[in-house]
Design a protein that fits this description.
It contains 3 helices and 11 strands, in the order ααββββββαβββββ. 24% of the residues are buried.
Length: 207
């Protein structure tokens, strides 16, 4: 009886739509910093990622292109790229849609933050079904697993379904997996060592 009651209380405490709650929590942030591990199969990208409102982004690449650095300025809408860490004077100014600064999966730097991911999932929810799969762990963090599957013919930027692991305390993503219409895994992203509202100097977003 106590076990059933504990389960009932846990379910009652879950938000009706965890993705909406996660996006609301993201909008309360001023900044965050995280290590991203993304890819599929043998292709793996590792990036130390920093974000500051209203959309400043810095990426320090660990794998591949170790030492490369990239910053995005939402005011000028330009990307500054230092492709080689050892060549400090070589810095390129590019548009966010330039193929040099898109990820292997075609993601743009100006839509690379956690809020953009959650908005994309939210759009799929409008044309699909959402299911709370239950609680689990990702690393040392408790996580709520949520799946979002588009209706029969719905595909957004190649994605038909998502599985998200949301931190049970903040509901911010700890892990995300995207699948195509045939159920093939397109990309898996781990968000490690997430820091909320770190003090990030303006100079960090300059190259």
């Amino acid at each position: 009886m106590l076990t059933v009651m504990a389960l009932f209380l846990t379910l009652a405490a879950l938000p009706a739509n965890p993705v909406d709650s996660a996006l609301a929590n993201f909008r309360q942030l001023d900044s965050y910093r995280v290590t991203l591990r993304s890819g599929h199969g043998d292709s793996v990208e590792v990036i130390r990622y920093s974000y500051k409102k209203p959309g400043f982004v810095r990426m320090d690449f660990i794998n591949p292109h170790n030492g490369a650095q990239l910053v995005y300025n939402p005011v000028s809408k330009n990307v500054r790229l230092r492709p080689f860490g050892f060549a400090k004077l070589l810095v390129l100014t590019l548009s966010p849609d330039n193929s040099l600064v898109k990820s292997a999966h075609g993601h743009r730097v100006d839509a690379s933050d956690l809020g953009s991911l959650l908005q994309q999932v939210q759009r799929l929810q409008e044309h699909g079904k959402t299911k709370i799969e239950g609680e689990t762990t990702v690393g040392r963090n408790g996580a709520l697993m949520v799946s979002v599957v588009g209706d029969k013919d719905i595909v957004l930027t190649g994605v038909h379904s998502y599985r998200l692991w949301l931190d049970t305390m903040t509901l911010l993503p700890l892990k995300a997996m995207a699948y195509d219409h045939n159920g093939n895994l397109l990309e898996e992203v781990l968000m490690e060592d997430l820091e909320l509202n770190p003090a990030l100097a303006d100079e960090l977003f300059q190259l």
